[in-house]
Structures are given as structure tokens and as C-alpha cells.
Design goal:
Elements lengths: L2 E8 L3 H8 L4 H5 L7 E4 L8 E5 L8 E10 L3 E8 L4 E12 L2 E11 L3 H4 L3 H29 L7 E5 L4 H12 L3 E6 L14 E5 L4 E4 L7 E4 L12 H24 L6 E7 L10 E2 L9 H11 L2 H5 L3 E7 L1 E3 L4 H11 L12 E2 L1 E3 H13 L5 E5 L5 E2 H12 L9 H8 L1 H8 L3 E2 L2 H5 L9 H8 L5
Parallel strand pairs: 8-9, 8-12, 9-10, 12-13, 13-15, 14-21, 15-19, 16-18
Antiparallel strand pairs: 1-7, 2-3, 3-4, 4-5, 5-6, 6-7, 10-11, 17-20
Length: 463
């Protein structure tokens, strides 16, 4: 059978590398963002445990089932495909201690395509390129996770409660926190459907509209991270939808902040979601955390959202507001919507393209939240945006270059307004040039300060 081999170095002892791979969040963390994988079950690193996930093959979503075998804790494990798209697949992960502070992971994959005698000639463009990109992504992800964990290894692990844990950010945040050794509990509503790989996770159930705790207890958490809120770009705006956008943020935040003040064992920190929509449409003006709020709908929403957390501040709980920019990942958000037209060469300037996009990679979003959680001196407002905002025209041009597609076909503003209504103005045509000054001043370093490097990694187009 053909053999693929890959070796990567990690600046941690081999036992730390093994512990990361053996954590509940590891599988979700190493999934390439562009592959559209849906985890169903993440098997522990023991013989005969099974990992199940759905992959994307065009319009199909076949199941891949892998069984672990040959497990020798701290040294090696294998997974063999029992069901999936390959004719055969057997993957050995061998962990090697280089010295007391460094380790290597040697991956060896023996694989065969279905009908291999007839299909082997397609491997250079159907298998090998994807394997190279997948393992490059895995290496970057594990290395960066381990670096971020190491930054705070001197501090105790925390007991963390997360709301909005099934959203784009929440899913990856919970996975990273678990991989970092923290004890994660999800704050959910009775109607919340947890992802298949999280069905056995600890939960606290509440009615976010009334603040009633239906199951579990909010006492004893070190940090509460509140990310819940209806999607801003999920549906066309009308009066009813705008009311949902506002109340799904302000009402639960107010209830949660007030509950925290009544607890016998309140958290030391409360991290509350917000957004750079706080600043409104500001043209070329450079904005930081000291800038005044805007006046449009999103600005008013964010202002009310942050104000709803005031009871926690008044009670002396360290409160952090996460003013998040455009999270850049093909798994959701703006980039996911831009990809299809961009692949057809229709990803040109929108409404002239002069408006600024203050973006952030999904990796930096997760690491910045963790940094603020672990840094006891951090409180107040923090802009979670990359230090190099770009115009929408530049964003489109760089995306086209990464995809090797032209990016000249414009999308006039009036067309976008006809298609999307008021939402087009707020989410596409308005802009903010937002800088993360307080985050940088706190000592945070970005994985992706540069947009092209971010897009190449998350889209599997690394050079």
C-alpha cells in the first residue's frame, strides 16, 4: 500500500504531547477548518475505542469510523478505518521524547483508494495534496495550542461555565479549554441540542428568558464565559428579528449577571460577549477601546448588551467585554458566505470596497479569550481584532489570490440592499477600523496578524 509519513517537533515533554492528544477536545481541535468534518464520537486513546465523524464529499456526508489499536500509553496509538471513503487506511501516531523539554510526533499512514488498480493514478491530486495540507494544519494547531497552554502552566486549572457553547466560537473554545486541562461545563437552555461529541458533557440548564436555574448549580465556577445570542446575519432583518437580536443578548446577560451576584461561591471572572458593531460606521477613523459608541442599530445593541452586565461589575466580579470582530473561518460567519461567489470569481469589491473589515482568525479569537480568562489583571473592554485591519476591497483581493481566482466582479451597494435589506448596510457596507490596543498591551501575541497567512491556513492553501 502507498505510505504517507510526516514528522513534527513540539517544544514540550512527550508526556504533555500525549496528554493533549488524549484530551476530550483534541479531535475537534485538529479538524481542518476547510474540510467540513462533523464529529460524532471521539474515542479515548485505548484499544478498541472508536472515533466517528462525518466528512464532506461533494453533496455527500459519509461516516468515517476509526478503531484504535496497538495503544501503548505515552508512546504510540494506531487507528484503522473500519468504514469510510478509502479502500484501506491505517494510521500510526508515534510519540518520541527528544529530551526533557522537546518531543516529536511521527505519523505514518498506509492507505489505498477504492478500486486502487484503477484509481491509483489520481492520488497526486485527490489524496497527497490534501494529506500534506491536513498534517501541516494539525502541526500548526497542536504547536500553537501547546504554546498557549504553556504560557499559563504555572496557574491552576479552572472550572469554567460557558454559554453559547454550540456556536462557532463556543464549540472551539470548549474544545481548547478541555485540551488545556480546564473543567468545562456548558450553560444551556432546555431546547439546546448539543453536538454529538458533547452529549455527555456536564451542563447547567436554565431558562435564559426568566433566569430560572432548572438543573445544576452556578456556584463554584472560577470563570463564566457568556457568548450566547441570536445570529446577527442568520436571517433577513425586520422589526421582529431585530428585537430577537437585542433581547437574546440583553435579557440573558442581565439575568446571568444578577444571578452571579447572589451566589455563595461567585466566579472570580465574568467574560461577556460583545462586538465591534459597538463603534458603528466610522469610515477611516482609527478606533480603540476608548472610542465612543456609534449610533446605528448594532451600536445601540452592543451598548445595551454591555450595560446589562453592570450588576456583575458592581458586585466586584472581574468583568471583561469581548468586542469581537469578523471571525475569519470557512466553518461559519462572513468567510463561509463569501467562499462560493469567490470561487466563481465573483468575490470583488462590495459597495465600492473602501469600508474597513476588522477581522480576527478563529484561532486568535479562542486564544485571546483564554488569555483574558487567565490574566487576572485584565478587566473592562478588549477589542478582539487582528492588528492589521484591511479594506473590504483588499480582503476580497487577498481571498481571490489565496483561492487563485479573480476578484474583480463588483457587488454594487444597491444590489446588496435589495438582496439583504437593512442587514446589508450594517454587515457589509458599513465598516470600522478597529485596533486591539488593550489586548496587545496586556501581552497577547497574535497567531495571525496577517490576513493572507490566516486565509491560507484555514482554507488549506498553505505554501
Amino acid at each position: 500500500m502507498p505510505v504517507f509519513q510526516h514528522t513534527a517537533q513540539f517544544p514540550v515533554p512527550v508526556e504533555d504531547l500525549w496528554a493533549w492528544y488524549d484530551s476530550p477536545g483534541a479531535f475537534r481541535r485538529i479538524m481542518p477548518e476547510w474540510e467540513g468534518i462533523q464529529p460524532v464520537e471521539a474515542g479515548a486513546l485505548v484499544d478498541d475505542a472508536r472515533t466517528r465523524f462525518r466528512i464532506r464529499l461533494g453533496p455527500l456526508r459519509p461516516m468515517w469510523v476509526a478503531r484504535h489499536h496497538g495503544v501503548n500509553a505515552g508512546e504510540v496509538f494506531n487507528d484503522v478505518m473500519e468504514k469510510g471513503p478509502f479502500g484501506a487506511w491505517d494510521h500510526e501516531h508515534r510519540f518520541v521524547g527528544v529530551d526533557a523539554s522537546n518531543s516529536e510526533l511521527c505519523d505514518t499512514v498506509q492507505w489505498r483508494l477504492p478500486f486502487h488498480p484503477l484509481t491509483f493514478w489520481t492520488a497526486p491530486f485527490t489524496v497527497k495534496g490534501r494529506l500534506n495540507q491536513m498534517f501541516a494544519y494539525r502541526t500548526d494547531r497542536v504547536q500553537s495550542d501547546l504554546r498557549r497552554i504553556k504560557d499559563f502552566a504555572h496557574l491552576p486549572r479552572q472550572k469554567v461555565l460557558v454559554s453559547g457553547s454550540t456556536g462557532l466560537i463556543g464549540l472551539q473554545l470548549c474544545a481548547f479549554l478541555a485540551a488545556a486541562g480546564h473543567e468545562v461545563t456548558r450553560l444551556v437552555r432546555p431546547t439546546t441540542v448539543l453536538p454529538d461529541d458533547a452529549k455527555n458533557d456536564d451542563v447547567v440548564v436554565w431558562d435564559d428568558r426568566t433566569g430560572e436555574i432548572l438543573e445544576g448549580d452556578l456556584n463554584g465556577f472560577d470563570t463564566v464565559i457568556h457568548l450566547a445570542g441570536a445570529g446577527i446575519g442568520d436571517k433577513r432583518w425586520n422589526a421582529k428579528r431585530k428585537d430577537v437580536i437585542v433581547t437574546s443578548r440583553t435579557v440573558p446577560t442581565d439575568h446571568l449577571a444578577r444571578i452571579l451576584t447572589t451566589l455563595e461561591q461567585p466566579p472570580a471572572a465574568f467574560l461577556c460577549g460583545s462586538a465591534i458593531g459597538f463603534y458603528g460606521d466610522r469610515g477611516d477613523e482609527e478606533l480603540d477601546e476608548t472610542s465612543a459608541p456609534g449610533t446605528n442599530f448594532l451600536a445601540q445593541t452592543c451598548t445595551a448588551w454591555e450595560a446589562a452586565a453592570q450588576p456583575a461589575i458592581d458586585a466586584g466580579i472581574r468583568t471583561v467585554f469581548l468586542r469581537t470582530g469578523i471571525v475569519t473561518t470557512p466553518m461559519g460567519g462572513a468567510l463561509q458566505k463569501l467562499l462560493l461567489p469567490a470561487k466563481f470569481g465573483a468575490g470583488g469589491p462590495a459597495g465600492g470596497g473602501k469600508q474597513h473589515y476588522s477581522w480576527i482568525s478563529l484561532a486568535d479569537q479562542i486564544y485571546a479569550v483564554h488569555h483574558l480568562m487567565m490574566s487576572a489583571a485584565c478587566e473592562g473592554v478588549y477589542n478582539l481584532t487582528a492588528p492589521e485591519p484591511v479594506t473590504q476591497k483588499t480582503y476580497a483581493k487577498i481571498l481571490g489570490r489565496v483561492l487563485r481566482r479573480p476578484a474583480f466582479a463588483p457587488a454594487p451597494g444597491f444590489v446588496l440592499r435589495l438582496m439583504l435589506g437593512e442587514m446589508a448596510q450594517a454587515l457589509v457596507l458599513d465598516g470600522q477600523k478597529v485596533l486591539p490596543r488593550r489586548l496587545l498591551d496586556s501581552g497577547y501575541t497574535f497567531e495571525h496578524p496577517d490576513l493572507e497567512a490566516c486565509l491560507r491556513q484555514c482554507l488549506g492553501r498553505q505554501k
